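Worked Example 4.2. Read the sequence first, then its structure tokens.
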Amino acid sequence: MREFLWPVRVYYEDTDSGGVVYYANYLRFMERARTEWLRSLGFEQDRLLEKEGIIFAVRRVVVDYKNPARFNDALQVSSRIKARGRASLTFQQEITKQPDGQLLCDGEVQIACIEAARFRPCPIPESILMGIPDVV
């Protein structure tokens, strides 16, 4: 699976006083897509904390906003792994408006695997890495 796609609907609560999606909510949509990507590999974040003692935390984000989304728009969030490290994954993510595919924003998000007890970086479990395609 090189690219993971997740649908999102814009709700009224996602918009600002101008009637467009508030800029920070695009990050929430990207987070949901990464969570669902991990779930599609068979991993639940609460179970990873409970059984492996790890959490994933955002380390770095760069987002470029292109076009606004509005109330009730149907969106699609794409996620693909751009880089793999021993304790981190870097995602390239895009949010497009459906059905025309207009690019609304794109971003690069680096997440780190963190040992929850000490809040220090730790290696990503091999069981997770096995489900991730090689980065080209």
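Now turn to a second chain, presented in exactly the same format:
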Amino acid sequence: MQFTSCRLFRPFVLVAVVFLSSAPALGAAEGPKSAAAAKELSQVLAAAKLDSIATADPSGPGGFIAALYIPDTQFLVVSAKYSAPTLLVDKINAGDFRGVYMDLHAAGTAGTKIFVQDIGPDGLISRNDNADSWEEAGKTVTFDGQWKKGKSSEAEYDRAFADADERYAKMLSLLVTQLKGLKAKEGS
């Protein structure tokens, strides 16, 4: 009797083992939205031998996005409105992307600045020992998986991460588009 029940039980065990062993792969495939954009920007910056890039933000007048790239270490990305937008447009046209980054970081219009630290640089990771961070409106969220330390619930933390990840992916994509446009101009 026992022998028969083991035979019947064996297929269920096999299915469970296959399912459980594939679960991590399913979760990893989803990953953060910003991961692909961070990888692409890293590659394009390295190929262009640049450590910074900046562009106007099409979502609103006077807005800009700039990034500093420290290879294999991190992206520092800032987005803000700037009170003298023509100054930053001139710097972008002159290729002074680091200058745009410095101006936005130091003197972006109050209440409009977003600052991202992407350690890796591999996109935002929600539960990471290297603790990526998102700063906006004077509030910093550190994505280290310790939402209680940040005095929030896990659901609030996850919502903050999802919002930051989506917005960061868009910022990086705009920078990639800018860099590809510069390369196209050089080629013509």
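Notes for the reader: The helical segments are 2-30, 34-48, 85-93, 97-107, 154-187. Residues 8-29 have pLDDT under 50 and may be disordered.
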